[in-house]
Amino acid sequence: MANYFPAQARVSPSFSEPDLIVTYAQASGAFRAIQDGKPRVKLGSEDLYVYINSLDLRTETFTAQSASNFLPSSTLVGSLNSTATYLIRTRAIWDHHDIASASQYNVSLPMAQDLAMRQGIFQQLRSMLLYGYNPANGEGLLNAPNAVKVTLPPDQLGNTTASTYDNGEMALWILSQVVALKSGMYQSGGNIRNKIVIVSPQRVFLQFQYGSIVQITSYQRPGAGTATIGQTVQNVVDEMGDEIEWHYDDTLIGKGAGGTDAVILTIPEVEVPDVFGINTNVFGEMAPQMKAVNTMYMDMAAPMKIPTPTADGAITEIQEIRASSGWNLRPQGLYILSMPN
Description:
Elements: E1 40-41, E2 49-59, E3 74-94, H1 96-103, H2 109-131, E4 148-151, H3 167-184, E5 195-200, H4 202-210, H5 229-239, E6 243-248, E7 261-266, E8 294-295, E9 297-298, E10 304-309, E11 315-324, E12 327-328, E13 334-339
Parallel strand pairs: 1-9, 4-13, 5-6
Antiparallel strand pairs: 2-3, 3-11, 5-7, 7-13, 8-12, 10-11
Helix pairs in contact: 3-5
């Protein structure tokens, strides 16, 4: 990693602003698609795989007006799920000459190198979350083998792109996907309050939130003339007792079917319905249980720093972290929407 701070020539007298113009990158909201909005810090530094057991059941009963000695029973089936982990590492090196050169730019070189390494690791983690390290193994949320994949259908006028779609129809279509998402995981009734997360490129849902007012028609429809697509969806979801979050990641551009933009719609964590009396989902009270729909594992909350002096008087610092790729555990709770722009 180079430290390039060329010599400067300045006019005197002059004033030098101490603040820096720093390069910005998009702060991705992709991690909000996993439980608690962050990876589970449970790995050991040398753990190569993560394993999760799953338990399925099929119960048969006998019903008659008289007793029988030949009775069916429950069938419990256990299975093992796994995903690989990967070690992410990067290095920086500097000496007292580099520090002196950087100071002419009002830059703390150790701090700058530390943040640069962290950003590189965090961006790699984002890539592993969404796309996996080995996509052929179903790693990454977009490669989840049984996730529900939906392509935006034409509106009533035949428009098929997010930028030309009828705003009112778009709001209703998004809400219909939310209904399908909740229905697929039986997240209705029983005092359930879900957090629904949408992750998309900025050019899709940022436009829906700010610039796409639902048009007025000859009949009344939600948000007509007063609300954007995003506000309409937000208001309906809030009124139904759930919450919805909008997050952005521009690496999803072109990642949908046929080169369209990919949009992630998910409920990161399932809720167990609180039903009074007879509960036909009583097996859902089995403990311990994993409630995550999507997750990711790491061995520590932040990269480990390993600074070492070198023989020629410099300092080399390695940062590393071990992590799994994004892992979808309940495919019915992850929708990948393909939306042409």
